[in-house]
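Section: Multi-chain targets

For targets with more than one molecule, the full set of components is provided together so that the structure can be written out for the assembly as a whole rather than chain by chain. Components appear in the order listed by the source. The example entry contains two components.
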Amino acid sequence: MSLLSQWREAVGQELDRLVPPPERWPSTLHRAIRHSLFAGGKRLRPLLALAAARACGGDEGDVLPAACGLEMIHTYSLIHDDLPALDDDDWRRGVPTCHREFGEATAILAGDALLTHGLGCLARYPEDRRFGRARLAVVSDVVDAIGSQGMIGGQVEDLAAEEEKDPAAQTPERLERIHSHKTGKLIAVCLRTGGRLAFAPPGTLERLSRLGELIGLAFQIKDDLLDVESSREELGKTAGKDSARGKLTFPGVHGLERSREILETTAGEAVAIARELESGDGPLAELASFVERRRN
Amino acid sequence: MSLLSQWREAVGQELDRLVPPPERWPSTLHRAIRHSLFAGGKRLRPLLALAAARACGGDEGDVLPAACGLEMIHTYSLIHDDLPALDDDDWRRGVPTCHREFGEATAILAGDALLTHGLGCLARYPEDRRFGRARLAVVSDVVDAIGSQGMIGGQVEDLAAEEEKDPAAQTPERLERIHSHKTGKLIAVCLRTGGRLAFAPPGTLERLSRLGELIGLAFQIKDDLLDVESSREELGKTAGKDSARGKLTFPGVHGLERSREILETTAGEAVAIARELESGDGPLAELASFVERRRN
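Its structure, encoded as tokens over all components, is:
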């Protein structure tokens, strides 16, 4: 089994250990949390944290619970984004979305709980006291990345762009702003978290953040391309939905051909930085190139 | 001006400093956050944190930003509880609820942002390094208090009780469970936070938590009584709504007379513990007795 597959399995097991069992009170909530957390996600964000830690000489075992905290935060953002008042999605990763399965109230609260416990994991792990200051720095970084001027801001701008009446306001800059905030900042802070927990120097943390921004951008272009090119069976969620909703997308702004070129350049630059950080080919480079190649 | 009034003003000013200005991107979100944060709340939770810190010999100025983080978390819980999918409330503190004013999507995201930034404040403040370990302990305490087996669990149980068909399941124990989780745990952890940031010993932290549970219980009985006894003008939110929705309440379970008695006993015990912690009458005792006397 490849290193990334081993890590993916370890993330799943650790998440199962960190989240209360489905029968524990309040059982409906814990079942809803688990429904979304174990719906076959790619675990890209925790894997990036683990790969960054490894590239910086850190111990993957130390970083595993914090990496799972990042996956909880990512899952919270998906549950809330899918809600009827936001993107109104019925399918995600091939299964019904949380609110379709458990109702809106439970889905809102399941998202709230995942955000709470996710940040809690970052404050608590690794437990050893020598990580105390690094944990505080990680929580602070992550709060900036996912807060009102980070991921949540990207979501607000995405919704505003969808309701935009003036075509002249749908600029490439706006598209870039939406995606760098909605997707890029969380991915970048996952890499940075891995670096922090491996006690990487500031210059390396900056390289990791830059790599994360590129991976986030490549991820989003690919997402937009898949929405155009795939069927629901391949994608695990409703396909063709972006253009149906009038979403601002890369193919919409730049066309298909140019979007594929931007994806290739971006992913190429990401792989180059990853190889530099890993002094050759490693899991970080593999993840960077996976983002371009993925089918869902 | 009394000490509590001074603190209340200081909390308002500090919140204004901690939250991005309304014109900053994404402006709609920051306006929505401010709408709910500055809607005339009593600031009970931050005041309890400040009073607890003072009782333990801590510095109120040190504790102020963290106390504001607790108010952000409380406000997040109100915004999400008021949503159509949950309690579906149109009025709160005399003004339209966040989703009535800004729409559901923005309200969900404003709540998410307040939770994120609230926990962020607890990880960041007081900034001085000697508080590093205390800050980590505070985040951990608060995550337990507001997580799936804390405040969110109470909200889940509250919704379940509302949909309950079997009258035999509406027991005093269930009512107690709902309120100790939905209200009591956050109030208790506010006091505990003040104690932690004043480096109080474990025994004192336990007394503070016990005091918080009593204040939370008194607060909730009073809330249920006010819902029966008041008009919307006095209350600032829709009155008589609990019984209209079939909510499990203290007057509903114990009757009005017995509920008033339980309130008196509970508040009396709280004031006694507060006086003991403050070695006489101080802001903690004043807050404990305010909870019983309040009109909204």
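The longest helix of chain A spans residues 202-229.
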